[in-house]
Design a protein that fits this description.
Elements (H helix, E strand, L loop, with lengths): L4 H6 L18 H14 L10 H4 L15 H5 L3 H23 L32 H23 L7 H7 L3 H4 L15 H11 L14 E2 L9 E2 L11 E5 L5 E5 L6 H19 L4 E2 L14 H4 L12 H12 L6 E4 L10 H6 L3 E4 L2 E2 L4 H5 L7 H7 L2 H13 L9 H6 L12 E2 L7 H19 L6 H30 L27 H15 L15
Parallel strand pairs: 8-9
Antiparallel strand pairs: 1-2, 3-4, 5-6, 6-7
Helix pairs in contact: 5-6, 9-19, 10-19, 18-19
Length: 553
């Protein structure tokens, strides 16, 4: 059961999937203060309080060459403060051992600070080690990651159907998932309702969603439930997968996915696609497909090959059925975006980016909802599910090309497969995937790196700043912007799907106004103005960058 899982997760740093809460009883302020002031009080040529040398120790105790005995005199003085200091040192050392054990380390990991004896605590034990500056921070920065490892061990021990398991294992260490607590809303993406932010935050922590409390005992249909209704999950996971039985024009009852009735899954998919297209345009990277692509679709990239297709008619097939099947076959290999890097040059690209240059790359975006993929995952590493889905994209395109080639006359004719191999590296199609808890796959991270390097090249051409610092700042901004957009998109979809459960009444819809929350803008100048305004006003939240301080008087 592990009833304390969410409480302990909240105590982790936000970059480890927590909320950044700190327990006061674990903050070694007394130890930290004495470690800082004792050398100043009795050490040096001009001590602040040399009368305390008989209690705290003499100048030799805190001399750089004798620091291994810094607390010997203090502990032997029978001072109550000395006893409390020793007890706090032992408590911190025991906490480190306990944390290592919970993280799965049978023997505590060697550490230059915790391995010191109580009499010399605060001095590094390594050869040539010196005094530890900011002792409390050094101690807690060691313990916090170990606690995150321990929580991961506990998460792996949870039942696969436990709603707390997948969000932490898959997105607990994801930068895009955890950005909700570290960044302010940007000019493009902001939570318009309190329950939108509340829902996004609760889903991030795998906690029951308050906005659907009133629906917890209601039932609704899912595509795989036949005629049996399902209770609404308090975490909102199964509310993404509603279904509706309707009669078509011929009176045949069909089951349709309710979450797609108003195009909400398509809205989420297109939102991710248009966000990438927007930033590719800002970075001056040529592409087609998406809101800012030229053209805004990838149709026609296989037009010459499609002209060779011969689709035979099946027995008893009507003209309408034949045209639908033929159109579906022709559209099966259309990508979302095609990024043209044949003439793109980047300054100081990474090894992975350098491999992309010189090619056109087909990109097919994928989104995942909570479901069987997450429950069946055995890897239990950050993003393993979205990375697994990403690796299916390119083989799927190869299968589609092979199927299309089967309709081309001639046994040796493979125009679609030959054309597919002209894209990417040996025909590989990029499959950036966005998970149910806002984690992203490696291909998505690669595209972020591409955009960040292009933006950094433009910035360093006009401003004298180290290129690697500019890349880090640009990527941090992209992660923040996309992370907020993902949280907002999933939260709105969940809240909007409440109407499929209600019998009487209706919750207010949070569908965005057309044109206001999309990634597109009226002009390139407006895009750049808002981009630089965001960097100017919110940049200081992540790095030393932001508006100059105001002067009073």
């Amino acid at each position: 059961m592990d009833s304390g899982f969410q409480r302990d997760r909240a105590l982790l740093k936000t970059r480890h999937g927590g909320l950044g809460y700190r327990l006061h009883e674990e903050r070694c302020l007394f130890l930290n203060s004495l470690n800082n002031i004792a050398p100043l009080m009795v050490g040096g040529a001009r001590p602040l309080w040399k009368e305390l040398r008989g209690t705290l120790g003499g100048e030799k105790d805190f001399h750089p060459t004798e620091k291994e005995r810094r607390w010997v005199t203090f502990f032997a003085s029978e001072s109550r403060y000395g006893a409390e200091l020793r007890a706090e040192i032992i408590c911190m050392k025991d906490l480190y051992v306990q944390t290592c054990t919970e993280a799965g380390h049978e023997v505590p990991k060697e550490h230059g600070v915790f391995d010191a004896e109580p009499e010399s605590f605060g001095v590094r034990v390594e050869e040539g080690g010196g005094e530890v500056h900011k002792l409390q921070r050094a101690l807690m920065d060691t313990i916090k990651p170990l606690r995150a490892e321990g929580l991961k061990v506990r998460a792996e021990a949870l039942h696969p159907n436990d709603a707390r398991r997948a969000p932490y294992l898959q997105a607990g260490w994801s930068r895009t998932a955890n950005t909700i607590y570290n960044n302010a809303p940007t000019q493009r993406k902001e939570f318009k309702l309190e329950e939108e932010f509340q829902t996004a935050a609760l889903r991030n922590q795998a906690a029951p969603v308050r906005a659907i409390d009133s629906l917890n005992f209601c039932r609704f249909q899912t595509p795989n439930s036949a005629n049996v209704s399902t209770r609404v999950d308090p975490f909102g996971n199964n509310l993404f997968l509603g279904s509706l039985k309707e009669e078509d024009a011929d009176g045949v009852t069909r089951t349709r996915c309710r979450c797609n009735l108003r195009g909400r899954m398509r809205r989420s998919h297109d939102g991710f696609q248009n966000w990438v297209s927007h930033w590719l345009k800002v970075a001056r990277i040529p592409h087609r497909g998406g809101a800012k692509g030229r053209p805004n679709t990838c149709k026609g990239m296989f037009s010459q090959e499609c002209a060779q297709l011969v689709v035979p008619r099946k027995d008893g097939e009507t003209d309408e059925e034949y045209e639908d099947r033929r159109e579906k076959l022709l559209n099966s290999i259309i990508a979302d975006i095609c990024i043209d890097l044949r003439h793109t040059e980047l300054g100081d690209p990474t090894k992975e980016l350098k491999a992309l240059l010189g090619y056109q790359h087909l990109v097919d975006f994928k989104t995942l909802l909570p479901g069987q993929r997450y429950r069946a995952d055995t890897d239990a590493t950050t993003g393993s599910v979205v990375n697994g889905r990403q690796e299916e994209v390119s083989p799927d395109y190869e299968k589609k090309a092979t199927k299309l080639d089967s309709h081309v006359p001639g046994d040796a004719a493979t125009p679609f497969q030959d054309r597919l191999k002209t894209f990417g590296i040996n025909g590989r199609v990029l499959g950036p995937t966005v998970g149910a808890w806002c984690e992203v796959s490696e291909d998505f991270d690669l595209i972020l790196d591409l955009i960040a390097h292009a933006l950094a090249d433009e910035e360093t051409s006009t401003i004298q700043v180290p290129h690697h610092q500019s890349v880090a700042r640009q990527k941090s901004k992209l992660v923040a912007d996309f992370g907020l957009m993902m949280h907002l998109t999933w939260a709105r979809q969940l809240l909007d799907n409440r109407e499929f459960v209600l019998v009487e009444g209706r919750h207010p819809s949070s569908d965005p106004n057309h044109g206001r929350d999309d990634a597109g803008y009226d002009s390139e100048e407006e895009e750049r103005d808002l981009h630089h305004q965001d960097m100017y006003m919110n940049g200081g939240r992540n790095h030393h960058f932001g508006p100059p301080p105001t002067q009073e008087g």
